[in-house]
Design goal:
The complex is a heterodimer of chains A (421) and B (224).
Chain A: H1 9-25, H2 28-47, E1 52-56, H3 65-79, E2 83-90, E3 107-112, E4 132-136, H4 140-144, E5 153-158, H5 162-166, E6 180-183, H6 186-195, E7 200-203, E8 224-229, H7 232-245, E9 253-256, H8 262-271, E10 274-278, H9 287-293, E11 298-301, E12 315-318, H10 323-339, H11 356-386, H12 400-404, H13 412-420
Parallel strand pairs in A: 1-2, 1-4, 2-3, 4-5, 5-6, 6-7, 8-9, 8-10, 10-11, 11-12
Chain B: E1 3-10, H1 20-23, E2 29-33, H2 41-50, E3 58-63, E4 68-69, H3 73-78, E5 87-99, E6 102-109, H4 127-132, E7 142-144, H5 145-150, H6 161-170, E8 176-188, H7 198-223
Parallel strand pairs in B: 1-2, 1-3, 5-8
Antiparallel strand pairs in B: 3-7, 4-8, 5-6, 5-7
Helix pairs in contact in B: 6-7
The chains are: A alpha/beta (421), B alpha/beta (224).
């Protein structure tokens, strides 16, 4: 295989433009030959899993399961041999709160850069027809950028119900070409399927690592109430109300778990006597499951995102988010906790659905299906071009570099040479 | 865990070891009288401690008069107690008031040990927090007998002798005072010093703190 020479970005872009112009100036017969070679190469790329799965990931500066799940899925896909890449907005962003050894093994690219004067370069990224873009469901505006792209595969990654709030009224993802939907849970899948029945659905959860989240000894448990509350004002009001109404329970300390780095979050959660989770907008919240793994009960208002935990005794459901009732329920729990020597050993069977092995298997199944689908699409395209029903010009944007990954070609001349031979 | 010896304070009027007889064997209980003796409580306790033969292999638990201890006390605390040398384990205690033969909840004692804005590390009483003498009591605490042998209760300070003892032991680096975040029983609010003036109580309080001030002064002299 020829060693690719490292050139400056400016030189590379100049060369690409030059190659494209040269390609356009070739006789029609040669151009067809090149297109044909490109289509042929696509099958090689797909069978070798070298086609890219690009996960659009917003630059969220604080801990969120959206970013950690994207990283986790991308990392596991790379372990499975898929060419998964995370695409962030501005160069330099790192989820520093995600303290995991494997983060360094995730391939990350960026849409734009911040210049020294504080301004930003225009966002740009070179997509190839073989690429798949995966966009979280709340990022409708990002999906819109791919509306005109007919050949790239488009996938929606569904974390919750934010998709319904952010899409244009009356529109759906398929109007922008996003026809594959990967949901974090069966509930999300069922709910979206009722609304958009014409899309193709898959379910891949996140991992709740039982090696990482596990119960600690009773003696290490502290009178700490963990708070995972979306609205900061709600958290502040509940803490104040609790301390004012129940001053004799002052030994209980509230700890806000949101925005902690992954290590501090885990260490804080496992020490808790109780987790209070108020996040009705979350489609499939991880904190109650992580708490369950640590034998920490969760107090939470019911939401459809928690239907899978409906019968688990680790979950204490309340009917309302009324601050007074939440504070009173916490106080009642605290009094019982003070008198109870040990923590309960809750039924953790449900956590089998979030094991590393299962998530990896589901990722492999789903993305392999997407690979097969991609092969079928390109087979159909090839047949259509062979039969003269489709103009092969749709592949003009396919870069020579993609072919180079095949290890055979380096420029137009060599493509022609291969095709002609 | 070392064996527990309970010291039951009794004025002679309370039911004999009302709850303690369910908790401990008779031979593990030393019953001392408070009202019938003209001695102060600290002195009585010091004498009871001195009477324990194998004090270094004992955890001492002081049970105030009419206090109620949960029946599973020993197994309960064993979940929280491992290494006991030079350690004091202080559980949460419910404070109740007796009104017309009914017990009325007043609050929890020893809660300060879990307040991270008071102590350096939640669950451990440091010297500065002990000095503040907020809501600590040694009732139901498990105290390494060796520490009680080395540091006696100050017989000259009524009411605040628990606090002074905690001030003293927390000033030693090798001693750890650890919290048990669970309620193990209740004690009845003492009426013994109800008639004592506020000024007198402040004087006792200052005396309880005095030890540390003296120690600080000595350490300055030593360094000088």
């Amino acid at each position: 295989m020829s060693k690719k020479k490292k050139e400056s970005p400016f030189f590379e872009s100049l060369q690409k433009g030059f190659e494209k112009k040269r390609e356009a100036s070739l006789p029609e017969e040669d151009r067809k030959a090149i297109r044909y070679a490109k289509i042929e190469s696509i099958f090689g790329l797909i069978s070798d899993k070298k086609n890219k799965y690009i996960f659009y990931c917003p630059d969220i500066p604080f801990a969120t399961s959206l970013v950690s799940t994207i990283y986790e899925h991308a990392y596991m896909l790379r372990q499975l041999g898929f060419n998964a890449i995370i695409l962030h907005e501005v160069k330099g962003y790192k989820p520093s709160w995600l303290v995991k050894d494997w983060v360094k093994d995730v391939k990350v690219e960026y849409l734009q850069e911040k210049r020294k004067d504080g301004s930003f370069t225009n966002p740009s990224y070179n997509f190839s027809p073989t690429d798949t873009i995966v966009v979280p469901e709340t990022y409708w505006s990002v999906m819109q950028n791919f509306a005109q792209d007919k050949i790239i595969t488009k996938v929606v990654l569904v974390f919750g119900y934010g998709g319904l709030a952010n899409e244009e009224i009356g529109a759906d993802w398929s109007m922008l070409g996003f026809t594959n939907v990967i949901c974090l849970s069966e509930q999300l899948k069922e709910d979206y399927k009722k609304i958009f029945p014409h899309l193709t659905y898959h379910v891949i959860p996140y991992v709740i690592d039982k090696e990482e989240y596990k119960p600690i000894a009773a003696k290490d448990r502290k009178p700490v109430i963990g708070l995972s509350i979306r609205n900061r004002a709600d958290a502040a009001a509940i803490i104040n109300l609790f301390h004012h109404r129940y001053p004799y329970l002052g030994m209980f300390e509230f700890r806000i778990l949101k925005k902690l780095n992954s290590n501090d979050y885990k260490n804080s959660l496992e020490e808790c006597a109780l987790l209070v989770n108020i996040d009705e907008k979350s489609g499939h919240p991880a904190p109650p499951l992580e708490a369950l793994a640590c034998d920490v009960p969760t107090l939470t208002p019911y939401s459809r995102g928690l239907s899978h935990l409906e019968k688990n005794e680790a979950i204490i459901f309340i009917d309302t988010t009324d601050w007074f009732i939440v504070a009173e329920t916490i106080a009642n729990f605290c009094i019982q906790w003070l008198e109870n020597p040990t923590q309960k050993d809750f039924d953790k069977t449900i956590l089998e659905n979030y094991s590393k092995d299962l998530v990896k298997r589901k990722l492999n199944e789903t993305y392999s299906e997407l690979q097969i689908e991609k092969s079928k699409v390109f087979s159909a395209v090839k047949t259509a071009i062979d039969e003269g029903k489709l103009d092969g010009a749709i592949f003009d944007d396919l870069k020579i570099e993609d072919l180079e990954e095949m290890g055979e070609v380096t420029n137009i001349e060599s493509v022609l040479q291969i095709v002609k031979s | 865990m070392k064996k527990i010896t309970y010291i039951q304070l009794d004025s002679g009027f309370s039911k004999l070891l009302s709850s303690l007889h369910k908790v401990a064997r008779k031979e593990d209980v030393i019953k001392v009288f408070t009202v019938t003796s003209d001695m102060g409580e600290a002195k009585i306790l010091n004498e009871a401690i001195a009477s324990i033969k194998d004090i270094e292999d004992t955890l001492v638990c002081i049970v105030p008069e009419e206090a109620e201890l949960r029946e599973d006390f020993a197994s309960f605390v064993s979940l929280y107690v491992e290494e006991t040398d030079n350690k004091v384990f202080i559980p949460m205690v419910e404070l109740v008031e007796k009104k017309d033969d009914k017990l009325e909840f007043k609050g929890f004692l020893n809660s300060v040990i879990w307040k991270s804005y008071v102590v350096d590390s939640a669950g451990s009483l440091d010297h500065d927090a002990a000095m503040k003498q907020i809501d600590m009591t040694l009732a139901f605490a498990l105290i390494d007998g060796k520490l009680l042998k080395e540091t006696l209760f100050d017989e000259s300070i009524p009411f605040f002798y628990h606090y002074k003892w905690l001030n003293e032991v927390t000033s030693h680096e090798h001693v750890e005072v650890l919290g048990i975040p669970k309620v193990v029983g209740n004690i009845i609010e003492s009426k013994e010093y109800k008639e004592t003036t506020q000024e007198q109580k402040v004087e006792w309080f200052k005396s309880a703190q005095n030890y540390v001030k003296l120690a600080d002064t000595l350490s300055v002299v030593d360094n000088g």
